[in-house]
Design a protein that fits this description.
6 helices; 388 residues; six-stranded antiparallel barrel; mainly beta; Elongation Factor Tu (Ef-tu), domain 3; 13% helix
């Protein structure tokens, strides 16, 4: 028989037999370095027999307890509660710009203007200039420019040109649709003329010779210039990313199975603010060797404006991988490993009495240091939380 554990794994009876205590479990997870598990630690404050207990979730409160009868201070305890619990894991990650692009110069000529590193070039704007200030325009598309474009041609490169012209307001969607998206029509030529005029070209021809346009999937944020002014335009001109931020988490192969696209996340930025996101994709190519092999997991951020210009910044990602409803919940630190296998919690009774109650652990909330348990417990009972 198997049970769901902390982060969506199934634990066999053999694994449960070897389970560490709640305190040891929490300490071990903290020692992994990559997890920011908030294991609950009871804080005993002696004041006329009163015990104050603090926990990360704020759900477990202090209470008055009589002495243990053994001459020592009373144990720190926490209340068993019934509530919904989400399995959350906090991971270290890196905030960076998404995408990696290389701009290859085409045609002939000499570079006479280049953008600066960090500059963002958008659809319909000048990417660089050649010779007598002739602009090379950035257009959006996945098919690289490979030929001169002029009236009468058809093809996928023409299709993306027509989409660019419509998006920029230089061509009419209805006319392009009627004439065919993959056809370089008179409407396309007219749209190109309007684009060329906007770029400052004195004599717009309505044609786009190879080398006057660059197709890339999205806006480019220049990261480095690989060519200099006065050099031939042929070869790699610059390298860039997109202007979108993404968060990259490096997970082990075992951890990677615990997350999937669509999982909601909360990203804590370096300055302490948070922003929501969602796991957009899980990589398939591992890096590293041996026990250091990791797989990248990518997070799409819902509010790009909250990020600013941060790049390669350390962040914390809190991932919710599952939720259970109306279950018994105790601090992770209350779990005690049993010699014969499995877990128990120590229930504090009246008059300083204590007794062990076997429990089965369900999902763990690493972020708040809580765990779902099932067994002969009732809400309102108090369980001992040993000091870590």
């Amino acid at each position: 028989m198997s049970e769901i554990t902390s982060r969506g794994r199934m634990v066999t009876q053999q694994q449960e037999d070897a389970a560490p205590s709640g305190a040891a479990y929490a300490a071990r997870r903290r020692g992994q370095g990559r997890r920011v598990a908030a294991a609950v630690v009871g804080i005993a404050v002696l004041a006329a027999g009163a015990v104050e207990v603090a926990d990360a979730a704020g759900a477990f409160r202090s209470h008055d307890s009589p002495g243990s009868g053994q001459g020592g201070p009373p144990p720190a305890t926490a209340v068993v509660v019934r509530r919904d619990l989400s399995s959350q894991t906090a991971l270290n990650a890196t905030l960076e710009y998404a995408g990696s692009y290389t701009v290859q110069g085409q045609g002939s000529g000499t570079l006479t203007w280049l953008p600066s590193a960090g500059q963002v070039i958008r659809q319909g704007h000048v990417l660089y200039k050649v010779d007598n200030g002739d602009p090379v325009v950035l257009l959006y598309g996945s098919v690289p420019a490979w030929r001169d474009l002029y009236q009468g041609l058809t093809g996928s490169d023409v299709t993306q040109l027509n989409h660019d012209l419509v998006a920029l307001g230089y061509a009419d969607r209805a006319d392009i649709t009627a004439l065919g998206w993959d056809y370089y029509s008179w409407e396309t030529a007219y749209g190109v003329q309007r684009l060329q005029s906007a770029l400052g070209i004195s004599y717009p021809s309505g044609e786009l010779p190879l080398g006057t346009m660059v197709f890339q999937p999205e806006a480019l944020r220049v990261t480095s210039l690989t060519a200099g002014l006065g050099t031939p335009v042929s070869g790699v001109v610059l390298k860039a990313t997109s202007d979108r931020h993404t968060v990259v988490i490096s997970l082990s192969a075992a951890e990677q199975t615990e997350v999937k696209p669509g999982n909601a996340v909360t990203v804590t930025l370096p300055q302490g603010s948070t922003t929501p996101g969602v796991i957009s994709s899980v990589g398939t190519v591992a890096s590293g060797t041996g026990s250091s092999v990791t797989i990248p997991v990518y997070v799409s951020l819902r509010n790009q404006s909250a990020i600013g210009s941060l790049d390669l910044a350390p962040v914390t990602v809190e991932i919710t991988v599952g939720t259970v409803r109306n279950v018994l919940v105790v601090p992770v630190g209350a779990l005690l490993a049993q010699r014969g296998g499995g877990y128990a919690v120590e229930v504090a009774g009246s008059g300083g009495t204590r007794h062990l109650v076997p429990v089965t652990a369900g999902i763990f909330d690493d972020a708040d240091g809580l765990v779902q348990v099932s067994g002969a417990l009732t809400p309102g009972q108090r369980v001992v939380v040993p000091a870590a």
